[in-house]
Amino acid sequence: MFRIASLNVRVAAALGVATLAGWSTAAAAQTMTMSSWVPPSHSLTRDVLAVWAVNVEKATNGRVKFQMLPKHPSAPPGTFDAVKDGLVDLSYVTASYTPARHILPLLPELPGGGATAEINSVAYSRVHWKLLHSVGEYNGVKLLGVFTHGPGQMFNTKRPITKVEDLAGMKIRSGGGISEQMARALGASAFVKPAPESYELLSSGVADGTFFPLESINSFKLSTVVKYATLFPGGFYGSAFGFFMNQDKWNKLSKQDQDIIEKMSGEAAARSNGKSWDTADQVGLNALKAAGANIVTADAGMQAEARRLSAPIIEDWIKKASAKGVNAKAILDEFHAELKKVAAGK
Length: 346
Prior knowledge:
Radius of gyration: 20 Å
Strand content: 15-25%
Oligomer: single chain
Number of strands: 12
Shape: globular
Distance between the termini: 37 Å
Helix content: 40-55%
Structural class: alpha/beta
């Protein structure tokens, strides 16, 4: 049975594993630790990491088991090294937190993404495994999948944002990467802090606003502090995640179990994770509406101005990615083509 070490019953229930009756409690052939740097109630923990682990345990007939650590063993940006060095066997991190190390995975964070997390995740997964993975930016761990969060939006505590100029001087918490660059390009005073700190930053006034997918309104309990939201169709930035396992632990798995895990990873995981995030985005939107927040949709003029100001950011990514030895412009074009294919059901 999927075991949660030192977690109370409430957390176990939140992870959805407290009532998995009928599963074998026999000793595991291989038990791995896993951890998440967001709360147990967050979609990344509850619907992505925990669900994937339960499904793998079931598919391997209990030969591979997972144990959730009660506390993440590093600061969120240190997750890649924590897994590589064996502090935890399985976790994930957003490229926004490690932009110097993971340049190519910033691709789906650029403006111009698709309408949903599922569309963006599947398109990114296809392009990553075809054109990016061989460059080796995830060397040192066993990469299982890549995916994105929902379209990135604007939230704040101060005033309606109906034009780019309204962001001038506003203190915006960002996760880094393209989100931070977009905040600065749009005239905000941006600073980088991990997502779990957002409520404290907003409630204390250290931050006036934050850039997030809608899901975060509910996951980080922001509906009581966020008063204004500006939504961009398809978002105005994204965030890409790598989901990975300690390489030594992977090597110790049988070929049979490796094959099972591979089948449940890659594009399958990207689609499942994207769907989970889209569901969570709707929950977040509902929470924002229920709290009476002022919600506006960016008009055509604001969207066009954001695109204009983002052009140097896209060019900068192309330059840095090209230095890795890839045709970054062609890869960006292929990503946009895949977005259209996935949106069309292909």
